[in-house]
Amino acid sequence: MAKTPDYYAILGVTRDAPQEEIKRAYLEAAQRLHPDKNKAVGETEIFLEVQQAYETLTNAARRKKYDASLPQEEQPSLPFNYKAYYSRPNLVRMDEAQMLYILLEIAPQEKLEEIPAPPLNVSLVLDRSTSMKDGKMDVLKSAAIKVMQNLRSQDIFSVVTFSDRAEVLIPASYPYDKRKLESRIQMLQPSGATEIFQGLQAGYDEIQRNVSQERIDHIILLTDGHTYGDEQQCLDLAERAAKQGIGISAMGIGKEWNDTFLDTLANRTGGSSRYIARKEDIQKFLVEKFEVLARTLADDVVLDIKKIPGAEMAYAFRTQPETGPLPIEDSIHLGPLLQDSTLHVLFEYRVDASLTKQDVAYLLRGQLKLSLAALPTPIPPFKIEFSREVKDEAGKEPPPALIIQSLGKLTLYRMQEKAHMEVEQGQFELAAQHMKNLATSLLAQGERSLARTAIIEAENIVKMQSFSEEGSKEIKYGTRALIMPQEKEQPI
Amino acid sequence: MIECPNCQHNNLDGTVFCSECGTQVSNSHSIVTQNIAADSLPLSPVDRKQTTEAYAKSLDTWASLHLLDSGQILPLGDRTEFTLGRVSEAQPIMPDIDLTPYQAYASGVSRLHTVLKREGKRVFVMDLGSSNGTYLNGKRLKPNVDQTLNHGDMLALGKLKIQILLKNP
After folding, report:
1. What are the C-alpha distances in Å from A490 to residues A386, B80, B150?
2. Which H/E stretch holds residue B165?
3. Which of A88, A132, A276, A333 has its CA 20 to 30 A from that of A381?
């Protein structure tokens, strides 16, 4: 007998989902899977199932009957585990607000390590504007060739170049003839201005040809300049990409690109952004990025949150892999889940006194959503809760080492963030003081060269009332890199 | 409210690091930067050396620290670089190996004292400009200069004596 499909899992909603949510989930899935738009093999069948799920679940009588036919809802056996570490064993009953740090760890289950990582569908979007001249272009070319050569035969790859317009250098295809692809990349010549949207759109179109649940769809943007006037278009495109499960990562070369913009762009999709100070590092970072993609099980783990009054999520930061701050929204893109490593996100909570009147304070009610490219069956969204007991006394237990370690480094990153904000608000003295404090802490941790940069920037703030472009990026991405766990090396 | 011992900034209760200056403010006396299995050894004075070495060899690490005063062995993890020092409450300094439980303060160990690193098969020690110096087999090291380490070498961080046991001597 054929098993009835799990309509809730197909739509990606929980069993107690209200009608509006089912409708919303259906519309989203329909947009993604509609046969007019999507020609990938097998997706039409999925679309029909979605249709059926919607018809069943939106009709109250049919839904009731269907629900009765379902086996008892058991804790679904998830292909991943999650765990929350808290900085304190309990909250304290008091009349003022208090802080709580929570580190969320998501780990793939062991059996997943044996499944081969899904194939890639990657588009390299390369800036070829005039500013790329002085040798950067050559390094970029050899970096692109290097990653192209590392591709597996099941991967799909495209290269798009852009200046004030975009060209598809290598259309999305399997890398059959690597020598031909290499000579195409070699033809690249710098000229023109920087208009990132043109490039992104072309890269997005290339990805679109093969977009599929079974692949890791990703756009990698490399640029060295500001884009003018098309930022919003880029962000809108990122939004669309995120809905289709397409990730965008950005790498800025040199000092002149707009870091805030590229960070935001990448964040929309759960992608990452990096600063490449020296052109010699382009290849290393690009190869690293591809290695991460090739180990990716799920592009983007999304945390949907329902706000709880009194529990303010004040900060969210991914500490591993690919460190970076996360914008706090109703749906937070936490980032990728890798085959052999855990995803760590650190949350800072400001807990209002009103919450400590009860015996248990709930800080977060939400659900985790992810789809694993390697598994054909959809994973139902998984409910997640953060809560703490409230007691009259503070617990004696010190925070877990994991939290102390991440937080110790994160504090440095946040100090430069604070200084940036103060410069924007014209509080130059305060900003300079914070940069000096940062320098002291950096020195204490043995980060001499970063500490020196921080001191120079403190002087810049006093003299010129702003950061230098270079120093500002060096400190921002330098302190961010400190949070990254040490790479393991081969034992002797 | 918690007042930061360093800059007197008032932080909300539950804060771990001061938001103004980065100093650690939570009441955590026993933070070990890295969890190390500090197995103590039941040593008979007769073949103390032999047992120690056999034990160190049996561990799956490239090097172990033999703390002579207490007889304990600290196996190092599988990273290639370790800073040695002691965690101090008022500053966010995180040596990879916290020697506080081994009388580090009384022995004159600096917060960031020495670093041990491995490059291929060679192992080096470098003093990090500590106040009381690092001594290798009785000779004081120049700060910030790498010095090769051999199996069985004696290090002294201030007065804290440590014998280096390498997996592949």
Report:
1. 38, 9, 21
2. strand B160-166
3. A88
Among candidate residues B116, B16, B76, B125, the one with its CA nearest the CA of residue A397: B16
Structure confidence at residue A441 as a pLDDT band (50, 70, 90):
confident
Provide φ and ψ at B13, rounded to 5°: -55, 140
pLDDT of res. A111: 67
Report the pLDDT value the prediction gives residue B54, as an integer from 0 to 100.
59
Tokens of A319: 């500490």
Distance CA A266, CA A262 (A): 6
Say which DSSP state B143 is in.
B
Pairwise CA distance, residues A355 & B131, whole Å: 48
The letter for the amino acid at A293 is L
* Selected residue with higher pLDDT from A228 and A489: A228
- Chain B residues interacting with chain A (CB cutoff of 8 angstroms): 1, 7, 11-17, 19-24, 26-35, 62, 78-81, 83, 91-94, 111-112, 118, 120-121, 128, 167-168
CB contact (8 A) between residue A98 and residue B14: yes
A321 cis-preceded (ω within 30 degrees of 0): yes
Euclidean distance between CA atoms B40 and A317, whole angstroms: 39
Closest of A116, A51, A467 to residue A297, by C-alpha: A116
Cβ(A270)–Cβ(A242) below 8 Å: yes
ipTM, two decimals: 0.72
* Identity of the amino acid at A478: G
Of A467 and A17, more confident: A467
Q: What are phi and psi of A175, to 5 degrees?
A: -80, 65
Q: Can you tell me the mean pLDDT for B40-65?
A: 56
Per-residue pLDDT tens for A340-363? 888 999 999 999 999 989 889 999
What domains are defined for chain A? Answer: 7-69 (1.10.287.110), 80-114+297-391 (2.60.40.3670), 120-294 (3.40.50.410), 401-481 (no CATH)
| Cβ proximity of B55 and A464 under 8 Å | no
Average pLDDT of the residues of chain A: 85
Of B13, B34, B118, the CB nearest to A92: B13
* pLDDT for the residue numbered B88: 74
Mean pLDDT of A329-348: 89
Report the amino acid identity of residue A316.
A
